[in-house]
Amino acid sequence: MTLNQQSLPTSMTVVDIIEPGGPEKLRLIDKPLPRVSAGYLLVKVEAAGVNRPDIFQRKGSYPPPADASPIMGLEIAGTIVAKADDVDEWQIGDKICGLVAGGGYAEYCLVHKNIALPLGSLSFIEGAAIPENLFTVWANVFQIGKLKKDETVLIHGGTSGIGSVAIMLAKAFGAKVLTTVGSEEKVDAAKRLGADCIINYKKGDFVEATLNYTSSLGVDMVVDIIGGDYVAKNYQVAAKFGRIIQIGMMKGNPKELNMMPLMVKRLTHTGSTMRSRTIEEKALIAQELKEQVWDLLLNGKMKPIINKVYRLSQVKEAHEHMESGDLIGKIVLLNN
Known about the structure:
With 336 residues, the chain is an alpha/beta fold. 29% of the residues lie in helices and 28% in strands. Residues 21-333 form the Enoyl reductase (ER) domain.
């Protein structure tokens, strides 16, 4: 049983993948509206975030979980238009943003009641640019990595979606932040985010720069979305008992890796993915974000960086733009 779904259209426009491949394999088609089951909200999607996992899914290398929508899109913002009878904490008409395991590239999307967050003063575009990176950073850097006030953290890719959120959160909770970027434009962007030490890796070695900045002590934590040959270098820059938090592997697995520094320094190297986590796990993250982070966003003390906004009908161009280079900030798809 659901409230209000009978007054809605029976079909919606969604982005479909014709077959695995490039952006040209994307098209708009009509599909039936999803049915609302217990614990869920049906949201009219106003905006959806574009993430690198969407690119991998389009190419056929990142299939959705078995119980998730096959439609791309991991984060949305919009208005609740229907809800299950067991949902009391949300009302039809509420504006929310939320993390989803799929289904965001569509006119309507299901969001679990415990993973939705109130939009408040945020715009739909801002709301759609937040959940995936915020949930990922909070779970990895704070729940798993336990970053503390006055610790030092090196964040790779500081102007990426993950990196920018990691810098803002780390600074908000009193850590000292070093970050790597690949251009002077990104150096300026990282300064605006509040990073204490910014390393242009195209002009110098980040290992040397990090050890110089920390007086050869190294950093308490490394947040890495790069992988590849960065892994061994992360071991070099980590302090004794340091934590390496692996959030991405843009350069793939390391071809060779000397594990001795990990053993000698007694390092912890960990990481996780978000999409395959259970509703209960994601709900716990959402609750902690409401309690400890959400006011920072609603009060404007943290603000997502928006790179470019496209219409849903321009999804091919949005994917081409994401694949064109290492971008500053988020790409968002707008539904109206």
